[in-house]
Amino acid sequence: MKITKVETFVLSNELKESFFFSQWAYSERRICVVKISTDIGVVGWGEGYGPADVISAGIKILVPLLIGKNPIEQETIWHEMYRRTLDYARRGVLAASISAVDVALWDIKGRALNLPVSVLMGGQHRTKVMPYATGLYFSQSNKLSEKLAEEAKSYVEQGFRAIKMKVGYSIKEDIKHVKAVREAIGNDVKLMVDANHAYSLREAAELARQIETYNIGWFEEPVSPEFYHHYKELRTKTAIPITGGECEYLRYGFQQLLANDCVDILQVDICGAGGLTEAKRIATLASTRGIELIPHVWGTGIAFHAALHFIANLEPVPGRLLSPDFYIEYDRTENGIRESLTAPEIKMENGFIEIPQRPGLGIEVNEDVLHQYSTEILV
Ligand code: MG
User: Fold this and answer.
1) Ligand 1 centroid to 268 CA: how many Å?
2) Which CATH superfamily is domain 3-114+366-378 in?
């Protein structure tokens, strides 16, 4: 089997209602998707996390390395892509270009061999995972606490047993929001907070101290990803587990988080950090230190399914007969592309999502929808 064609698509969807978080506002969803074709008619789909236009341009650089290669040999292909980008982007968005290609190659491999990606990765430790709803962003409402409480309640009504909300507005407002959400959802639903690195160490410690009473599952990206020592110090100042990693790339970046004892839970984005091939290596690194891994997931059903297979294959560390629930991030903010690009529809039953047993990632991409949202095609 040989790769014959690589196409990237930059998909765009204007939001009906813009929302914001601690760093900037969203008024559009813009996502880079890659389609890789082979000489036997099998195609695979991948997706990059981050600025879609740059990821798309990055993939264009990689195309000459891919044409004619056997997609089954994705580790050697991965290494060539890494060497081609290393001199200019040891970390960052070109890793997302590599990731998109790598996910597509795993999809091809699964489809060609008629096996789910998680089985090809070495097997399924579990057949279902617990989604947590990501939402509860900020908006211009003058009754934001009430609005967040209502949104949180709607997730519980949909069957979610875990929810993540944004903090990083201001410490005073964050405390009000967390209190309102916790009171709205009761004590049986897990609640996590995410600052997207809005705070200094002193501020993060203060917020953690003030919200500890609301039984917080984890505090995500409390401080800048540049300050590894602040992560480490914050862990000594709060009982809330500290998480991070969505701004980190490749095993070399994650090694920094691990070596510096920065986090209780690593959050690898498969479509940004180097693809499934590299995420599996990062999971191995994390396992040597007994650190949990819950991927960061953002984007379409392609990214979501890549994460489903990855989590199915994640080795439980430590192992035990009655394994705890494994979580997957499930973005619930407005995204017309996510809702219509892939089939079958993602279904939650009794608070869990089943790992697909279909070949490859287990999805079909609706190419009419792809072209409907597409802003450009690079071949
Ligand atoms: Mg986050």
Assistant:
1) 10
2) Enolase-like, N-terminal domain (3.30.390.10)
